[in-house]
Description:
Number of helices: 5
Largest sheet: 5 strands, antiparallel
Number of strands: 10
Distance between the termini: 10 Å
Helix content: 25-40%
Strand content: 15-25%
Shape: globular
Structural class: alpha+beta
Strand order of the largest sheet: 1-10-9-6-7
Amino acid sequence: xRVSMTTSAGTAGRPNxxxxxxxxxxxxxxxxxxxxxxxxxxxxxxxxxxxxxGGALLGRLSRGDGRDLTAILADTIGEVxxxxxxxxxxxxxxxxxxxxxxxxxxxDRLDHLLLADSFLVLDQVRGGPEVVTDGREATARRVCSxxxxxxxxGTAEYDRVRASCVEALRARRNxxxxxxxxxxxxxxxxxxxxxxxxxxxxxxxALLSNxxxxxxxxxxxxxxxxxLDLLAADGPAGxxxxxxxxxxxxxxxxxxRVPDDATVAHCTQLPHPAxxxxxxxxxx
Length: 284
């Protein structure tokens, strides 16, 4: 399996809180989340968390033992939580957390796992791309943000209602009926979106963080088939470059958004089960 990847910090001078990495036959992409300036909650920070969690996941995946991805994620969440439970307030809603996206070629199939809002694009041999995501956070965010409708931005009332919406969203995190994300509770892994596809049904796969997916929504620069075409022509860096250009054009306007960390991994030359042992490789 050939893997090309790129990651870009959204804001100069701030750590990139995304993580992407690969081992033979598997790729991991994480999108970190937390509240800036909360060193009193966790002295390590979000970037530390995503790199610890991503590195530990790759270590387990490199064993190539075919272990269930949900079990691998659960053990890894527990391992990283134990590393800083004694120094940090992990129960605080603002402590570091991350979305998780894993793909793994295992035998004649490609397994995947998603927790929270990253995007997996399956480049199918027939039928066009299939996009897999975990939409529960987006749904919870829409519900919790509903009270903001009609409230004029820039007013004290807007700030008050927005703060209430943020607290309502946090209360739904890792709760039944809400959404799930990697944080301090290994049981969140049991709620991940998982699946498996025959390798012979796929030309390749693409993994995108939420920041990179802006190329499709909200900026509408292309659809998912266009994303695959762009990856084939310009690689992951081409996707991120267009996102940054769209952010620059939207700055100061109604579609303006705070630039987000953006990460893409593109997997091609998927291993064929009939290939000789050791014939597939993973390059980045």
